[in-house]
Amino acid sequence: MNDYPPEYDQENLDNTYLAEAFPDADSPAELYRQVYKWTSCGAYLSVRINYFETLPPDESGYDADVERSKWVHCGELHKLGTWKDLDQKGVLITAILVGSIVEGVDHGTDDIELEIDQLDEEPEAFNKRFYAAIDEVEAQALSIWNDTHGCDTCAEHWAEDAGITTQHLLNTWDSVPIWKECPDCEGHGEVF
Fold first, then answer.
1. How does pLDDT run across 9-20, given as a tens digit for each residue?
2. Displacement of CA 3 from its chain's centroid (Å)
3. Domain parsing of the chain, residue ranges
């Protein structure tokens, strides 16, 4: 994006980039709220922050500023404040992670981590990459749901289709897939 070495920009990075990428969200917490509310799977969101911590003086008598990085997850995002608050505190978001649990099973979707590259990617392009990741999470969550949340009638159908008893199916299969033509659950499955 610039005609000079990118390392010259490192000190000028801030969260304005994310404010531009997500103009309808004034903070990481608001972005999470929107993602959770508007996805059918209730996707989660975490952010990786980089910040400096001042360590107490050592034997030389000088303080030391050490760069730190940590993940902040869903329910803790409100503590970060707005994009502008983060900038005022000297905290930079360097990655966003999205994924989803699937109720009733021991596993969820893959966690998709999106590195933020302010120097080589425009905010609009990051926004598109972010929502493509959200679409992938939704697709994975739906696939897991469809593979695991069949009702009793779905189980009877699959047992008959496999030529086994329903009890044998329940004893040997890890889960019951949804039968899309099920007259009872109408192909939506059931919540455990």
1. 456 789 999 999
2. 34
3. 6-147, 149-192
